[in-house]
Amino acid sequence: SGLKDYWITLGSGFGVAGTKGYRSHSGPVILKDADRIEIKPAKLKEPKSYTEGLRWVAQEDKYFFSALVPIETPATGRVWRDGSGEVLVGLNVPGGKRRFLLYAGPKDHNRLKGYGVGLEYIIDFGFFSILARPLFWILKFFYKIIGNYGWAIILLTIVVRIPFIPIVNKGQKSMKKLQALQPKMNEVRQKYKKDPQKMQKEMMELYKKYKVNPMSGCLPMLIQIPVFFALYKVLLIAIELRGAPFIFWIHDLSEKDPYYILPIVMGITMFVQQKMTPATGGNPQQQKFMQFMPIIFTFLFLSFPSGLVLYWLVSNLLSIAQQFYVNRRLAKEAAEAASA
């Protein structure tokens, strides 16, 4: 009680071995008001102090964290590197008898929110948090019904795709029309290859005449990007997937597939999807590069958590089913038009 002020610190030697995951932060975190501030240990050159609006300081890894929360008394937070190179985070508080909350454990959102001190903000839902949070709740809701996070991911993927069905259908139809227009487009390219401006003008006239929008195939993909990244983030950070089994050889959805079956099947579905998607011309080098995308993605996904690969695989299967339906419907319409 005779101290003018004192420090309470958290060292970096916290966490569970093997929980420093792909694209997840490990190190100090500060909460100011509702702003989560990450400090990357490798980039910390000088000590940093935080005073106004400070709610807590913490050390985190992918699924676990320790936090110090000042109760009633304002405190100053500080992050610095000690003589041994270890990055510390702590609170500087006035002398006397003070109350603190010390939490050390998993990033369980419901439990953390129950403390009422903002500890739930340790869970980083990313840039698209406005989408990621409801997706997180839907995932947990499905788990309560089914009791298996693998099937919950499959259901969530289906639910997420439903609102985009009309947009994707329209884009796929437009790409099919664009494919049918390729011979005329090639004629224009050949005829005006020495006059790019005239070629562009004739191309626009061609699109207008046959009511084709060359960008409509890209629009569905662009609209889905925020949802994809939001769901990607949820599956990447959710501690609920840690140790959660799916079926057969998948015993932990937060870990990579031990036999690489899911990423290989995912790569095959990408190849099938690519073959079913109408070719719309364009740069030959770009088309050649795109042919290697299934192989590139397969190798990339070998080390990804099984839950993420499962989401991508199911999403590809849904795209294949939708493309099959569109191709079959357009072929039927073309046959009816030819026989009329």
Structure characteristics:
single chain, alpha+beta, Beta-galactosidase, Chain A, domain 5, 2 domains, elongated
What is the element layout, followed by pairings?
Blueprint: E1 5-10, E2 27-32, E3 35-38, E4 48-50, E5 54-60, E6 64-71, E7 76-81, E8 87-94, E9 99-106, H1 109-114, H2 129-146, H3 149-161, H4 165-180, H5 182-191, H6 196-209, H7 219-237, H8 261-276, H9 284-291, H10 293-301, H11 306-339
Antiparallel strand pairs: 1-8, 2-3, 2-5, 4-7, 5-6, 6-9, 7-8
Structural overview:
There is one protein chain. The chain has 340 residues and is α+β, with helices and mostly antiparallel strands. The protein folds into two domains: 5-124, Beta-galactosidase, Chain A, domain 5, CATH 2.70.98.90; 131-188 and 216-339, no CATH class. Helix content is 48%, strand content 16%. The chain has a five-stranded antiparallel sheet with strand order 3-2-5-6-9, with no helix packed on it. Strands 1-8-7-4 form a four-stranded antiparallel sheet, with no helix packed on it. Helix 3 packs parallel to helix 11 (306-339). The chain starts with a strand and ends with a helix. The mean pLDDT is 85.
Radius of gyration: 27 Å
End-to-end distance, in Å? 96 Å
**Overall average pLDDT:** 85
Q: Give the overall shape.
A: elongated
Q: What are the secondary-structure elements, in order, as H or E?
A: EEEEEEEEEHHHHHHHHHHH
Biggest sheet overview: 5 strands, antiparallel
- The amount of helix comes to 40-55%
**What low-confidence regions span 5 or more consecutive residues with pLDDT below 50?**
none
Approximately how much beta-strand content do the residues carry?
A: 15-25%
Question: Largest sheet, order of strands side by side?
Answer: 3-2-5-6-9
Number of helices: 11
Tally of domains: 2
Number of strands: 9
